Amino acid sequence: MSLPINVISGFLGSGKTTLLKRLLADQALGDSALLINEFGEVGIDHLLVEPIAPDTVLLPSGCVCCSVRGDLRQALLELHGRRERGEIPPFRRALLETTGLAEPAPILATLQRDPQLRGRFHLGLLITVVDAEHAEQQQHLHPEWLAQVSAADRLLLSKTDRVPAARLAALRRQLQALNPCATLAATCDIISGDERLLGAGLASHAPAAEVARWQPLRPASGSRHGETEVCCLEFTTALDWVAFGVWLSMLLRCHGERILRVKGILDVIDSPQPIVIHGVQHCLHTPLHLDAWPNGERRSRLVFIVRGLDSRQLRRSFAAFLGHLGAVA
């Protein structure tokens, strides 16, 4: 059975360490494996019960914690192998804490493209911790910050007690404008077993609920922040799946570095079920079939978060694609 892996990112000093330390000793994480990269800041010495394998320890909660020293792929395969051999508890999810400078796309590409990993792990949630105190400075100085925010399924605000209410409200509005598909919460509100941290997202048993979170978006809701823009496309004509796949593949091949995030629900010819797509930059994940249309409304929608790409160019490209098929946006 393939296991979900939730990626926890956030810029240096954002509060990933504080959040994880608070949760590591909790029984709610007992069926989890936590992977910390070589430069991670989470101190576990005071929580250590016993070493159970090289670079691997068992915490009081029952959570397996290991260090990723070098290749992520190899670390995941070794961890899964120990699980299968009964050398560590049979965890049912993994949490990967990235370095503060890591962009999500290479991590997702590793999970998606490696044939050995694909049968063992799949992407759950992308979670980004945002430092409310330093967000304004970080977004202007570090492109990784924007990549982390744009890719997220969940945005968690840390250090909210250090920021005036008006400034915090403005940051919340900005984050929702930058990534309208993500849910937003404060790290101080995350509790034991919280699905915002441990949930499986589109890989859950109820993926329609995840899709419904971003369904209210409309084409007019696009917004611009510097070089970053949200572009929403909506259309009522059923699509030819193969032709759409060719168009999207060509778009990502030409502009993948500038398309930070794409999510969509599609009405496809000869399919009574909606098809959900999502991806980060060049990496597009396996399409998902829903049992029914969220909110009962049969209408295709695509949401792009782009940087340095004029949304008018994207709209013209899509209109040309629809025109070729005789469809109307």
What would you note in describing this structure?
The chain is an alpha/beta fold and 329 residues long. The protein has 2 domains: 3-203, Rossmann fold, CATH 3.40.50.300; 209-325, Hypothetical Protein Yjia, Chain: A,domain 2, CATH 3.30.1220. 32% of the residues lie in helices and 26% in strands. The strands form 2 sheets. Strands 3-4-5-2-6-1-7-8-9 form a 9-stranded mixed sheet. Strands 10, 11, 12, 13, 14, 15 and 16 form a 7-stranded antiparallel sheet that branches. Strand 12 (259-266) and strand 13 (275-280) form a beta hairpin. The longest helix is centred in the C-terminal third of the chain and has 15 residues, at 241-255. The chain starts with a strand and ends with a helix. Residues 45-49 have low confidence and may be disordered.
Short description, anyone?
The protein is of the alpha/beta class. Helix content is 32%, strand content 26%. The strands form 2 sheets. It has a 9-stranded mixed sheet with strand order 3-4-5-2-6-1-7-8-9. Strands 10, 11, 12, 13, 14, 15 and 16 form a 7-stranded antiparallel sheet that branches.
